[in-house]
Structure formats: C-alpha cells, structure tokens
Amino acid sequence: MKFTAEQIAGVLDGEVVGNPKAEVYKLSKIEEGTEGSISFLANPKYLHYIYTTQATITIVNTTFIPEGELSTTLIKVEDAYLSFTKLLEFYDQAKKGNKVGIEQPSTLSESAKYGANFYLGSFTYIGENVVIGNDVKIYPNSFIGDNVVLGNNVTIFAGVKIHSDTIIGNNCFIYSGVVIGADGFGFAPNPDGTYSKIPQIGNVIIEDNVDIGANTTIDRATMGSTIIRKGVKLDNQIQIGHNVEIGENTVIAAQTGIAGSTKIGSNGMIGGQVGIVGHLTIGNNVRIQAQSGVARNIKDNETLQGSPTMGYNDFSKSYVHFKNLPKIVSEIEEIKKEILNQKKENNG
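RE: above sequence
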C-alpha cells in the first residue's frame, strides 16, 4: 500500500516541502531510511541524519530550517514526534484491516448483545449476559466471562481472559495474555497453619482510553471494585492486586507489582520493577524510579528512588557515598589508628 507526501500531509495537517507526489510504502528510522520509506526528525541529536538519510519523506517540525542540501521530501508539522505516532496508528490500522464477523468455531451466548462492526475470532468464548459496544474486535482464543461489559472501539488481542462482571470503557486496547478479574490473593490463616480462601466477590472496572500490556494481570476486588481510571497506560507483565485504584493518566512500566488496596493518584509515572506494598496512598504527579520499593504513603509531586524509597535528590547524593563506602570505611579506620597512636604518644 503506497501513500504520497500529499496524502500523508492531509492526514497530519502538514505542509509538503519538496515533491508532493513522492510515494512511500514503509516506515523507517531516520538513520536507517531507504528509498520508499518515511521517517521523522524530532530529537536534535539526530539532526545530522537529515542530510544523509535515503528516506523518501521525512516529517519535521515547522521550525526546522535546513542548512544544507536535502534529498528527502519534507512534511512540516507542529510536532513531528506526535505526528509520526499518529501515522504509526494509521499504518497499523491499515495493515490490520477492518475485520468484522464471527469466526467459527466460537461460542457466543444467546443472551450476549453486540453492536455494529463486531469481530469475534475463532476459538473464543463469550458468556451469558455480556454486553459489547460498537467497533469491538476480539481476536482468537479469548475468554469473556458472564456479565462483562465492553464499551465502544475496544480491541482485545489473542489469548486474553476477562472474568465475570468486569466493566471496560471505550477506546481500550488489551494485549495478548492479559488476565482481568481473576481472584485476588486473599487467604486467612488457620490455627493449624493452613489457609482458608477468602471469596473474592468484587469486580474490575476499567475506564476509557486505557492500554493494558501483554501478560499483565488485574485482580478482582474482594468486595467493591479494583479500578483503573481513564487514560492509564500499563506496560507488559504488571501485577495489580485486589481493590487497587490507579488514577487518571498514570503510566506504569513493566514488571511492577502493586499489592492490594493501594490507591495511586493521577498523572503518575512509575518505572519498571517497582514494588508497592498494600494499603498505601500515593499522591498525584508522583514519579517513582525503576526498581524502587515503596512501603510508605507518598504525598503529591514527590520523586522517589531506592528501596526503601527516599527523595530522588537525596538518593542521588547518597549514592555517591554508597559507591565509595569501602574507601570511606578504610579512611575512617586509618583516622582511628592515628588518633589512638596520638593518644599513646600523649600518655607516654
């Protein structure tokens, strides 16, 4: 599938500088551009590649003024990075096509309801009383339990498991291997050392515009709801415990684990492999660096690192000393020896 610079500029609301009929059929990095590809320049570090790239078309900011000869046709936009992201989405949808219809074999309950442009992949099970909105795509080998509600324009990739009573809003993407609404980790100890399972009778609520990465798990609440607010972006392989609540537009990187009943505010950024204990309250606009361990409540606007976490600036200053600790200890021992020798001389 080929597109001209003129067509792409129309999609991106950009201005063509060069050949409006230049055609491309693939995407590339600017340093790896070849004939027939389209790339972008957003990071000044890659500026020199604009003069050597073989990409047929390059997306640049409107502020870009070339200082040398170019062989690539430019499309000028307000924000090259965001525009290229938009182009990636357009390309992804064009590549996948607009699948519709119900493939066989699959199981679709008679009590289930679905809207227009519905796609159901083969070997998928849809339970009783499921309600599915318009433009929903459910790829093969997925499971949708009883009483689940899916909003409009939801995409569920292959192998997803969504357990009963889960509610999912509009414009959500749920990637392969995700499990939503499995039982939370709830067990009561018995006097003999064994454990009795605590029934998990709540559900999971996922609001609009949420992305959930591959193999992430979100547990149903013991009572009430585990809630993922609108605009949240979850990476792959994240564990979210029962009754957790994550605020709007918070992003969380891979392999983070959040224990039960912790409440996380809006617009947060949590790095990879962060561990957060249960029953905490974490404020809005909080930044937690990768591999941190959080065991206390966090106020708004804090930036943290370490295990247990401390203020990011304090951690950075302390780390200088952590690295030099053996040398510091050795110097202290030498000072102690000098003091002891001085004492002996004075007493002698």
